Fold this protein.
Amino acid sequence: MAPSQTPNIRPKPPKLPRLPSNARITKRPLLRPPIPSPYASSASPKIIYISTKTPFISAVKRVRKLLDLIDKRAVGKVDLGDGRKGKQTLRALGEVDPASGKEPEEVILKATNRAIEKALGLGVFFQGQDDVRVRLRTGSVGAVDDIVVDDKRTTGKRKKGSPGRNKGEGENAEEGHDKVGEEMENTEADDVVIPETQIRKVSILEVGISLK
């Protein structure tokens, strides 16, 4: 009996530490490499970034335009007047040699977070086209967030939590005890070393579209 194989399960990223109440997070935009020219060679990936505000029809037209340029660049100039040699050259351009390991050039749609749904919709649309092939790839990227400390908020909380002000003689003693505890928590929060930045993981979806 063959031993059972355990599936490859990616470890979950560690949870980010909880920040004190006087700190807030400011999200930075994701770092993106410069977009190459659509007329660049196959060495430069043809990437279209999808957001929640990207128009659907506009994205379809951009993909089709890049696929047309890829097709023209792959075919190049073929002299069909050369008879049999020209036909063999044209036939070879449409075939991918499996031994070479070279994949056909594709247009890549990239989306993160809420824009993943729109990228999936584009992938489903192109799956219904007879002349293209669609591949889905998932992953995650690191995003850098800035941590801003609000000193005024901490000072205001201390004044609000200071006991002995506006207290009637018949008020419950537990309320004063709670406020004293709140002041102690704020004092302990000041002693915590707050980092300037933190890295969080963001889900990403890639939709690769290539000609058949």
